[in-house]
Amino acid sequence: MNNPKTVFIIGGGVAGISAAVSAIKHGWKPVILERTGHLGGRVRSLYAKDVGSSIDNGQHVLSASYQETRQLLSEIGSHDRVTFQEPLFINFRISNRHDFQFQPWNLPAPLHFVLPLFLKAPLARSDRQFMRRWGLAFWRADPDSLKRLTVREWLEEYGEAPLLERLFWEPITLATLNTSIDEASAFLLYQVLINAFVGSRANTGLGLPNDLLDALFAEPAEKYITAAGGEIQANCVVKKIIWSGKEVQAVETRDGERIETPHLISAIPPNALMKLLSSSDNLDKELSLNLSRFTFSPIITINIWTENPVPGPFPIALIDSPIQWIFPMVEASQKAGLHGYTLVISAAFKESAMRNEAIINLANREFQHYFSKSLQSDFKLKDYKVIKEKTATFLQTPQSLRYRPGPGTAFNNFFLSGDWIDTDLPATIESAVFSGRMAVELLLAQ
Ligand SMILES: Cc1cc2nc3c(=O)[nH]c(=O)nc-3n(C[C@H](O)[C@H](O)[C@H](O)COP(=O)(O)OP(=O)(O)OC[C@H]3O[C@@H](n4cnc5c(N)ncnc54)[C@H](O)[C@@H]3O)c2cc1C
After folding, report:
1. Helix 14-25, helix 429-445: angle, nearest 10
2. How many domains does the chain have?
3. E strands of 245-282, at which residues?
4. How much is the pLDDT for 282?
5. Structure confidence by residue, pLDDT tens digits, 356-387
6. Among 203, 309, 339, 341, which residue has the fewest nearby CB atoms (within 10 Å)?
7. How far is the CA of 41 from the centre of ligand 1 (A)?
């Protein structure tokens, strides 16, 4: 490896892809060492033989405010594989008969979303009083003071808002932080609200992939990186990092190969990095301690194919249901003559312990409860595939903010990236993309 401007990246998820693209843009050669046979990490597609269909490992929703991600997708040529709502639209299904369709109004931010919520949502007097108090305080909030609070503790400062909690706070916190409002960090939710609702009105829309996730990230990224002279070594499990003083020298793979790494970026999750560091001889004690503190939150995606269509419009947020969202599947996952949907359960601690059959029974029950009045007849489930991602994201509590490290380490040529590092963002695609760029920029600065 003669080119001194070569950077090795462990992990080919979104953070690794972002680091590679960023390195290329600065005239460097990236070499991605990826454990599996393909790029994408937690944003990937798979062929499910048992149902004979290509599906994603989980429904991924972007936000129009994901500036870093949108820039990356434009760079690798797949921005058109996401359809961004203009403006935001969410169909909140409150009960069998009752929907609340939320759409911002044509007003300057933040009135565009505050007013329709205030005037159109089915709220009680206490909810409206809460909104007034909370809304005024929000503009003056000191984000740093929110770092020690959970979302519940933050909201309690402004009184009670039982309907708003069910209709807005719980769904938005689960969807963006994969953590319940009792545990989730108020600071991270504040960041979500600021990015999506306070800037331009165009930032509020959701971005829904219109193709499989592989077509969005893995495939175009592989083409882009290899065409620019970068390398992707698939099925390459890094087992050990070899240090010399304050520098990383090389990595060792599961097959016993030693690869010299003049510059190294880790783009793997905290638990994988902890394993890697503990099998390496030179420990950064503070980093190891921080890594050991991360805990994780699961997401379950239930893919269903039905004979009769489920009535939209979509996306549907089910209020008070363990199933929080329903999305129509992308065309590539549909089956002839059937209607495909993905159902999402975030922070699915209880459901993760359930058998797939029990999860499907739960889905059936919820469909009967929320749709029996509007379905022409039974929706007739024809096929299903449940995917449990047990470590979908880290649990995003106020405590977790204290142990998210930055991209730098105690070693001069070793940098960190991944959705879990300290980006001030929740553990999302946007955080992963940003972290990859942060790691490369720190490398260049050094
Ligand atoms: C079901 C689900 C739904 C989600 N929904 C959303 C959503 O709607 N919106 C959103 O923004 N985010 C969502 N997320 C979060 C998003 O997927 C992650 O934030 C993002 O993919 C993290 O990317 P990453 O590169 O940091 O990590 P990863 O994707 O985990 O990438 C790490 C890579 O490193 C590789 N690796 C690990 N160990 C080694 C090793 N020793 N040697 C070599 N390679 C190694 C892995 O194989 C993997 O490819 C969701 C996640 C899940 C699981």
Report:
1. 40
2. 3
3. 247-253, 258-260, 264-266
4. 63
5. 999 999 999 999 899 987 665 578 899 999 99
6. 309
7. 5
Domain presence at residue 73: no
**Closest C-alpha among 59, 53, 61, 19 to residue 39:** 19
> Up-side HSE of residue 184: CA atoms within 13 Å toward CB?
31
- Look at residue 24 and tell me if it is in a domain: yes
364: exposed, middle or buried (C-beta count within 10 Å: 0-12, 13-18, 19+)?
Answer: middle
Q: Verify that 283 and 417 share a domain, yes or no.
A: yes
Nearest CA to ligand 1 atom 41: 238
206-209 and 339-345 beta bridge pairing = unpaired
Q: How far is the CA of 14 from the centre of ligand 1 (A)?
A: 7
Distance (Å) from CA 420 to ligand 1 centroid: 10
Same domain, 316 and 257: no
- CA dist 249 and 333 (Å) reads 44
| pLDDT computed for residue 377 by the predictor | 59
271 closest CA partner among 59, 46, 436, 42: 42
If you take atom 19 of ligand 1, which residue's CA is the nearest one? 428
Question: How far apart are the C-alpha atoms of 396 and 177, rounded to whole Å?
Answer: 6
Residue-level pLDDT at 176: 97
Render 294-310 in DSSP notation, one character per residue: --EEEEEEEEEEESSPP
**pLDDT for the residue 115:** 85
Specify the pTM. Answer: 0.97
- Mean residue pLDDT of the chain comes to 94
Residue whose entry in the numeric block shows the structure tokens 């783009």: 267
Q: Show the ligand 1 pocket: residues with CB < 6 angstroms.
A: 10-16, 33-36, 41-43, 57-58, 60-61, 237-238, 267-269, 272, 276, 299, 301, 389, 392-393, 418-419, 427-430, 432
- CA of residue 372 to ligand 1 center, whole Å: 37
**Ligand 1 atom at minimum distance from 431 CA:** 19
What's the CATH number where 23 sits? 3.50.50.60
Distance from residue 427's CA to the centre of ligand 1 (Å): 9
Q: Are residues 34 and 176 in the same domain?
A: no
Ligand 1 atom index nearest CA of 36:
47
Q: What is the mean pLDDT of each run of 10 residues along the chain (446 residues)?
A: 86 99 98 98 98 98 97 98 94 91 85 85 92 88 96 96 93 97 98 86 91 98 98 97 92 97 98 91 83 97 95 95 98 97 98 98 93 73 97 98 96 97 98 98 96
